[in-house]
């Protein structure tokens, strides 16, 4: 049975993923044309490699269009409906570490935790005639964290496709929910993570689609990558 | 080969049976018959509404519970999840005078996993009545009368609450403003309120602030603090007039400092617990509240006077006070409710809510009315008959 393995199509994530697969002994034949998004594995002809954006990989794992994929846990939880039901995180890969966090302007000296933010959100309309605005691309994670976990109801989400950290300074939003690894970009934009503002600790994972029928092949690939990771670490 | 998700895997939404539809139709007709007999004009409310006002009033979480779509030119629309906000918007848009009654009825749409996705409501909203107590009592009388009109033999229970008394009690306990606001936000949600009370019983931890900032806080110098924050904002390219201002931040820092060393003491906790435990029939409510105020040395005369005026008005409307229950902890955790709230439940073993109502003096202003308009109203759940 053939298996479709979806890999990130660009950047450091692509490099690290390809390196890991090479270490695992897969001879990946990259297409001669850079614009081609498919690849073959010379010594494993039953594996079809597909290069997609990381969030597309998450979505396609959820829909069952790919059997196996490498993507961030944050995107899986944000993009897939019922991620626990339709996807199975088989291996954390130890790179792409990043936290999804709530960050406020550092100058908000009075706001250090979610309880502070709750007070500010509740008074916001009275002071400013509108709700507190949160810039993010993580709609679902934000709603769950604010509404369900912290009981904060009155806020609005401003969809942000990129450069979310710049939204508060640009006056587009008051605070942000975004991904951060070192916190350097947040700090450079005058933002600070709340003490209890970590929504999710994410990293890049090898993920199987629960809708795939190719159990044996998936298990084989997972086992091989797992062994490689162990040997790389020691 | 990729197996597709079978449609059968997914739980289908329950579908109303023909029999249930017939019952709803009869209940709706009875409600409209009541409107006609009382010369109440029925407002036409479009099924498709702008989504923004609902999200602005109830918050982003509502997005998961309404049916949204987008118009050709990109406006967010939704199927009406209720009638009150559209009625308010219509009133404002048409510039109607007050006092004004609005009656309505029809289908509302909400996402729900277990109870279907559309419900039937009918109700009456009254805007700008001169006498609040009378308007409150009238609203309650209309609600019970319609229920009686729909189901004359139905055993019902009526529950009364009042946000204003809770707020006045917090003020009389001389709690810091910040705490009063926090508690008012939780009013009506027992679990949240008790979590909050136990948090406030412990001293808060203070964060590490820059030396200059904490110095100014210690001296309580709001003005200098605001100026310092404004300078830092400008240095960092943040516009001080967009969003939270230096004054907002400075004022809240001083407010936090004022309560940093405080924690709820036992006298206050006992008074709060005593208050929240009040659950009496309405004919005994005034006396109970007076005793409570005396026992805890709280000045609540003004708010109890208003409360008694409403009780008298309810009595005048011909409702039996002994049949109504006042529960001091009953409220709705939405910030536009300001005073009187009520709920009518089934008297049987499964106490479903048949109707809910209350006073929401802040809502019309929040929706853009040029001046404050007092408002009270209710909705009946027609599916429950």
Task: Describe what this molecule looks like in 3D.
The complex is a heterodimer of chains A (234) and B (385). In chain A, strand 3 (38-41) and strand 4 (47-52) form a beta hairpin. Chain A is built from 8 helices and 12 strands. Chain A folds into 2 domains: 3-96 and 204-233, D-Maltodextrin-Binding Protein, domain 2, CATH 3.40.190.10; 98-201, D-Maltodextrin-Binding Protein, domain 2 (3-Layer(aba) Sandwich), CATH 3.40.190. The radius of gyration of chain A is 20 Å and the shape is elongated. The model of chain A has no long low-confidence stretch (mean pLDDT 92). The longest helix of chain A has 19 residues, at 215-233. Chain A has helices spanning 11-23, 54-63, 73-79, 83-86, 114-128, 139-149, 184-188, 215-233, and strands at residues 3-8, 28-29, 38-41, 47-52, 68-72, 87-92, 98-105, 132-136, 155-159, 175-180, 191-202, 204-209. Chain B has 3 domains: 9-164 and 317-384, Bira Bifunctional Protein, Domain 2 (BirA Bifunctional Protein, domain 2, 2-Layer Sandwich); 168-202 and 266-303, no CATH class; 211-260, no CATH class. Helices cover 43% and strands 17% of the residues of chain B. Chain B has 14 helices and 11 strands. In chain B, helix 5 (163-172) runs antiparallel to helix 6 (177-186). The termini of chain B are far apart. Residues 1-12 of chain B have low confidence and may be disordered. Classes of the chains: A alpha/beta (234), B alpha+beta (385).
């Amino acid at each position: 049975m053939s298996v479709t393995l979806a890999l990130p199509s660009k950047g450091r994530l692509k490099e690290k993923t390809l390196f890991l697969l090479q270490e695992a002994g897969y001879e990946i034949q990259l297409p001669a044309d850079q614009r081609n998004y498919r690849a073959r594995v010379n010594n494993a002809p039953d594996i079809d490699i597909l290069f997609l954006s990381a969030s597309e990989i998450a979505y396609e794992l959820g829909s069952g269009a790919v059997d196996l994929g490498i993507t961030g846990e944050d995107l899986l939880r944000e993009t897939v409906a019922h991620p626990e039901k339709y996807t199975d995180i088989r291996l954390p890969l130890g790179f792409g570490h990043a936290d999804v966090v709530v960050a406020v302007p550092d100058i908000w000296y009075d706001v250090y935790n979610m309880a502070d933010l709750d007070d500010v959100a509740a008074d916001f309309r009275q002071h400013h005639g509108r709700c507190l605005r949160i810039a993010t691309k993580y709609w679902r994670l934000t709603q769950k964290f604010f509404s369900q976990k912290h009981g904060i109801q009155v806020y609005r989400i401003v969809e942000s496709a990129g450069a979310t950290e710049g939204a508060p300074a640009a006056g587009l939003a008051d605070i942000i929910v975004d991904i951060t690894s070192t916190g350097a970009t947040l700090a450079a934009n005058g933002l600070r993570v709340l003490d209890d503002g970590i929504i999710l600790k994410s990293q890049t994972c090898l993920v199987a689609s629960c809708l795939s029928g190719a159990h044996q092949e998936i298990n084989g690939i997972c086992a091989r990558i797992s062994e490689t990771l162990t040997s790389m670490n020691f | 080969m990729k197996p597709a998700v079978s449609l059968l895997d997914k739980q289908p939404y329950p579908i109303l049976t023909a029999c249930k539809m017939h019952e709803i139709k009869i209940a709706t007709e009875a409600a409209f018959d009541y409107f006609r007999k009382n010369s109440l004009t029925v407002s036409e409310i479009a099924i498709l509404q702008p989504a923004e006002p609902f999200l602005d009033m109830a918050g982003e979480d509502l997005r998961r519970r309404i049916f949204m779509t987008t118009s050709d030119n990109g406006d967010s629309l939704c199927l009406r999840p209720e009638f009150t906000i559209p009625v308010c918007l219509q009133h404002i848009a048409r510039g109607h005078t007050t006092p004004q009654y609005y009656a309505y009825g029809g289908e509302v749409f909400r996402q729900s996993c277990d109870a279907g996705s559309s419900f039937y409501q009918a109700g009456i909203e009254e805007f700008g009545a001169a006498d609040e107590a009378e308007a409150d009592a009238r609203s309650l009388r209309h609600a019970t009368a319609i229920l009686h009109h729909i189901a004359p033999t139905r055993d019902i229970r009526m529950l009364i609450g009042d946000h204003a008394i809770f707020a006045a009690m917090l003020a009389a306990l001389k709690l810091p403003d910040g705490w009063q606001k926090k508690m008012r936000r939780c009013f009506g949600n027992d679990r949240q309120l008790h979590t909050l009370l136990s948090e406030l019983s412990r001293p808060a931890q203070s964060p590490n602030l820059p030396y200059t900032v904490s110095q100014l806080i210690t001296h309580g110098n709001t003005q200098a603090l605001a100026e310092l924050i404004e300078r830092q904002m400008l240095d960092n390219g943040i516009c001080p007039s967009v969003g939270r201002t230096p004054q907002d931040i400075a004022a809240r820092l001083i407010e936090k400092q004022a309560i940093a060393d405080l924690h709820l003491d036992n006298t206050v906790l006992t008074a709060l617990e005593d208050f929240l435990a009040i659950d009496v029939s309405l004919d005994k409510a005034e006396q109970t509240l007076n005793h409570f105020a005396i026992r805890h040395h709280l000045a609540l005369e003004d708010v109890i006077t208003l409360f008694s005026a409403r009780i008298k008005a309810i009595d005048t409307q011909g409702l039996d006070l002994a049949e109504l229950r006042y529960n001091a902890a009953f409220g709705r955790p939405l910030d536009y409710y300001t005073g009187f709230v009520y709920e009518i439940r089934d008297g049987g073993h499964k106490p479903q809510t048949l109707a809910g109502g209350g006073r929401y003096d802040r809502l019309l202003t929040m929706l853009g009315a040029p001046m404050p308009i007092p408002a009270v109203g209710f909705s009946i759940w027609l599916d429950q008959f």
